[in-house]
Batch of 2 targets.
Target 1
Amino acid sequence: MTKLGLYFTEGINDLLKNKGRTFLTSLGIIIGVYSVVLLLSFGEGLKLYINQQFESLGTNLIYILPGKISGSSPSLLGGKKFTFSDYRKLRSLLNNSQVVPVTTKNVSIETPSKSESTSLMGSTVDFFGTRNLTLTEGRYFSRSDEASGRKVAVIGPKIAEKLFGNQNPVRKSVKIQGLRFLIIGVTEPKGGGGLGGPDIDNYVFIPYKTAWILTNDKSFLSFYIEPPDKESIPVVVEKATRLLLEKYKVDDFSVTTQDELIATISGIFTVVNSVLVGIAAISLLVGGIGITNIMFVTVSERTKEIGIRRAIGAQENNILLQFVTQSILLTTLGGTLALLLAFLTNLVINRFFPATITPIGMILAFGVSFVIGVVFGVLPARKAAKMTPVTAIRYE
Amino acid sequence: MIRLDKITKNYQPSKDVVVQALKNISITINSGEFVALLGNSGSGKSTLLYIIGLLEKATSGSIFIKDKNISELNDAQISRIRNKTIGFVFQQFNLITKLTVLENVLLPAAYSAYGIQKENKDYARYLLETFGILEKGNSFPNQLSGGQQQRVAIARALINKPEVIIADEPTGNLDSKTGIQIMDLIKEIHLKEKKTIVLVTHDEHIARYAKRIVRIVDGGITT
């Protein structure tokens, strides 16, 4: 049998002999590793969720938004609004791409018996195409609805249900800010509305010219641009930026791609998640101190045994490694249990949220447990190794 | 085999008190000798034995084992000598309670350079059989009588085939009949295996098993 085998079997036997102590000591590590792994899996799930949400709303999109959203201090506030002439110029400049103007407003929408507040989207019919929105009922608004500013509305399935229950809302009329609108279509459910994604199922879509009546302001909040393919994204971004710079200052607007937008939002969540993981890591530190504590107790209980081992030829290193091995066994055992618990928790969570334990999370859990075992075991193990054999052997 | 040159050992139990346990001891123990260190309790005989057994460092003086100056060696080298060249038998038996008899016997082999080999296991069984306790191989020390435990300890001392056996009051925890059996066993090992034996005792009768008796009084040798 090799020495490593000796350390291992004796370490395991010792831990099994004191099952209660072993469990209580590794509890600190279990809780620490469990929370870190779980939070990491949440972070990973969140990124996945955000990506899915954005992708379900159309891919390869370019957004033109007011204000500066990328950079060190992202802000959507204080930007300019865009004009109809901006829209016309963009459309003629980017004739290969779909340019979709958007104006929004929070409004209340009423039936004779109910009233709900919701977000209004004024746009063109191209909006539905670029954002992959199909209808379950009725029709989209037409170009002539758009041109003449007819008061027609396509509504999301969620708001439809809130206002009309199970009834088909098409051809029914509602009042939006006192004006009567005819509902002509209902969009398919998109889900979302949680973290990071707009609650598109709750929106009311009307032609932008009609929306201007409600906003009292012939302007757009933003544009969506769908280039013909992924490769032309940089060219389109470049062209649009140059055009807007003729009129606006560089801080007044942002031309950003879907990927950048996802990265920005993911970035914010990554920071939040890192802070949480950091806080959870403190419990690992506390757990580690518990390990040191109990290892000191173990060393002192086994003083005589250490003396005997030294007398029959164990070197300082043998004793050191034996106790470090035991400490590592204690922490990796905790780490493994924690990982198992995290997997089980994930199984439950996955019914609501796509949290995922990545291989990196697993390696990290093992690595961290191992390192804690070494770091927090080495001090007591050194104490054991440095005992004078004769003093240790006379210890009662 | 073993040579001590002007060994002194001082203890400092408190700041202003220095106890001189060994005073300027020089002694040579030849290969194959059976030497008893005889003295009353507190005479310093056990301290001397622990210094010979490399379990304790002298305050001054040199110790040579097989002409190697021990004071020039590091812990790993000294541990290797303890493991290979010296076998210990203690008054308290000093078996490890959570290991079986066989595991206890094999423990010195586990700390040797090659770890436990098949030859070691065979030899351990041979020793246990010779000492009449083979059937106790898988028992734990607390299931054995004092005499049986001391036999296990002697088997452990022999497992790495050391040249020197160091015995610290090996009969001190045994009744006189068992004590005689253990001493007979040690003598047999000395004669048959040609081992160098260094024995510490306060008992004149036990000391007579040795060929040479060294009397220790107040930390010094009187002849």
Note: Residues 258-301 of chain A form the longest helix (44 residues).
Target 2
Amino acid sequence: MDFYGSHWVLTFLIFFPLAGAVVAALVPERLARSVALGVGVIELLVALPLFWTFDPAAGMQNRIDVPWMADWGIGYRLGLDGISLFMVLLTAFLLPLTVLGSWSYIRDRQRAFYAMLLGLTTGVVGVFVALDMFLFYVFWEIMLIPMYFLVGVWGGKERIYAAVKFFLYTAFGSLLMLVAILYLYFKAQGLTGEATFAYEAFLALPLTFTEQALLFAGFALAFAIKVPIFPFHTWLPHAHVQAPTAGSVVLAGVLLKMGTYGFLRFALPLFPAAALNETTVLIFMSLAVIGIVYTAMVAAVQPNAKRLVAYTSVAHLGFAILGIFAFNLQGIQGALLLMIAHGLSTPMLFFLLGMMYERRHTYEIADYGGLAASVPILSAMLVFAALATIGLPGTSGFVSEFLVLLGAFQTHPYLALIAATGVIFAAYYMLPPLQRIVFNALDRKENRVIPDLNRRELTILVPLVALIIWIGVYPRPVLDRMEPAVSQLIHQVEGGRMVVAPPTDHAAERPPVAAADEERR
Amino acid sequence: MELDFQTSVDYFWALLPEIVLSLWAMGVLLADVFQKGSRSEASRPAIAWLALAGIAAAAVANVWLMTVTGTGGMIAVDGFRIFANFILLLAAALAILVSMGYLDRHAMNRGEFYVLLMFAVVGMMILASAQDLILLFVGLELMSVAIYVLVGFNRRDPRSGEAALKYFLLGAFASAFLLYGIALVFGATGTTDLALLAETIGTGVQDAPLLLMMGVGLLAVGFAFKVAAMPFHVWTPDAYDGAPTPITALMATGVKAAAFAALLRVFAVSFGGLHETWVVAFWWLAALTMIGANLVALTQGSVKRMLAYSSIAHAGYVLVAVVAANAVGAAAFLFYLLVYTLMTAGAFGIVIANARGDRERVSLEDYAGLGWQQPVMAAAFAIFLLSLAGFPLTGGFIGKLYILRAALAADQVPLAVILVMASLISYFYYLRVVIVMYMRPAPAADTHAGLTASRPLQVAVGVAAIGVILLFFAPAMVLDAAQGSVAGLFIAQEALFGLSRGP
């Protein structure tokens, strides 16, 4: 069995955490975190070789296509390409770190906590590799449940409100997506006579512009809520502030990327004409730019550090959306790189905030001050993470934002110009709080006696620092692996954009059943 | 075996499951009388197990019925009936299992309970298989009368009596509507035979269209009462709330399923020719039920009452399959009823389990912290609630998807969107119970210690939970069975109109 040449690696990455979740739920309470750590490390070690075994030229690989519910054309269909590869790697990379980050943070109900965390990973990996629309939807939905519990059970004071808001917002978007998926399914069945939920079968469907527009709206809403794009972002700050550290890390690190990934994998290729329509592009890029500037301003006035970081997420993913809808090589590569960069720097900030919370039990910026004197290592890390978030040259954030702006400038120079100010705003919202926390006078005696980072905490942060610098300085290995997939995506979408099924006579267009009904009348 | 219903012996064979169950029920009645003479407390569960064995015997007869074909009688011998029978027997078995501990706790453990329950099931089975409006009515009354008594079975509880009275009065109204409708339909067409009706209406021999329309309308109202569709649902919350909980479970599952089966047979098959007319009425019923019931369910503070409204809402989803009225719709309908029976019976099972002595703890606060003190029970409840909400990993999701598919195949896009939006509303109240169970602390560390879940109840809940999950991961077998079983249902119609109503 060729593990890395077949689907087995993906199947393993999906279901191993689930098996781990079951074990973690059954072992004695004090062992749960060790089990979770073991599962996380194995998951990472198994995922890591994918970086080298992945063949950029081969397109979609590690595929499998076996029937699951054959009558309905539902199959167990998976595949990995240059777009999903890094999302899977990021997910696997963050898993052991989140376990370590929760090591002493989570004291109650550890078994359930780690079971949920591992179960969440199953859903997330599944979303990134599913090539069956039904399977994709199932993974997309089930990952809501563990996240809901992570926020609702182990979260802060307003955890229930935050959890419900998160759940209902996301469920609202995804239910409309379900209707759109079913519509496509029927369309495919009507045209070919074969019932299938295969992603590729949906790609080839001739759709009229109106159909494309409506279906795109169904998909885009689900993804826009997930990303989240302004003005659908209001659930995010609540969820982030209330979630435990691990929840925030997974949320910012990978869950939000499911939205941007959804645009790249589904919304754009399936409905090219509607998605790349001048108006649509303008709407999304404008919303992205508004999001970048608006949330930067909102972030700047937050007294709560966690809420601040939550808003920066909206701003950063605004850049990703900008790059995606610029729809050229630089733009999309930049967006993908930004998804990775954001998936490293923001979790790092959340980890650090979690560590500070464990020491001082507060996220209020005003409660800190002069940490550089009392906890130098933590302060150094915090400064690094903040600078990485701003996108200082030499960190991953810089390369990706630069690429995005480069791409956006080619199509919408004015919007790119405004978006570029977002980089300045980033300094504006990040540096003053940083100064307050790290450099001001050490005027509270509680801040004097807190311990500096221990070895476990350094183990979490050092790999993140290394990766942020590596991608910031030498992003070529990453970009090389993405490029063929991105080019192919652009090629395919640009091709599909011109092919719009002509609006047909309404009667002929309807499913055979309805037509038959009409005959009878 | 081939039945042509020329001799009455054929009826004996065709009605074998019902006959077995009836005779068995009489046997149980006798056994109970003799047992009362011995006044032995210990032998009481024996009656329940005996009743359960009767259900099993009927199921065996039902399996045998699969080898039988027959046309032309007052009783249908087709896959639809057999599938429906299995659902009804399953609902009955689950109801008996959850009753055992419950009756003891409420000091009303009498053999009559099980006997009435079995007779009610016979009524349901006849209702689901009647090929003639008269027989249909007989089945309906047999079921209803037994259920009226069962609802008021807890004589010491005034609310049980109130529920019984309300149910009886409105149920009698519904029966009257049905009967009047049957009379008018007979007056218009000269027949009560469902197959003949389909032919008469289909070929357009309508001497009195107005009379016929009134009859169809009255039948629709009668059925809407029985399946508790809005706005004919007003009896439901009170009757469900006041009835002994195992009976609530049976009413929400078996009674509803049987009424639905009859409704589908009558409307989709016999009145198939009038599809364009009644579909409008059912469209509105479905839309109103889905939206209304889900909205009202949001405001319920009692879990039992919330489940009552949830069962109304689910009637709305099933009505969508009826509106689709194609082969996919009928199969979706059967599949959904099966899932629905499992998850609803399971949910009521948990409501029964969460009790102390004879006090049921049905308010939301009573579930606070249950998730951590009774993890298995709460996890099962969470599974049922998520399934009722139609979440992936549960059979409820496949069921809803199936109905959506049927609705889209019948070009009912707006109804499909309403279904989806209604489900979203329902997330809110189903999740609220999950929130309370897991995210609210219990008042004390031992609030939920030592809950009295009897072993049979555990079995019932376990079976239901496993069934709900299995129907997601391996629905193929049941889907095939559902699809196969409705194949015969629309044959008559296809022959008449020369078209297939399914994709």
Note: Residues 2-497 of chain B form one domain.
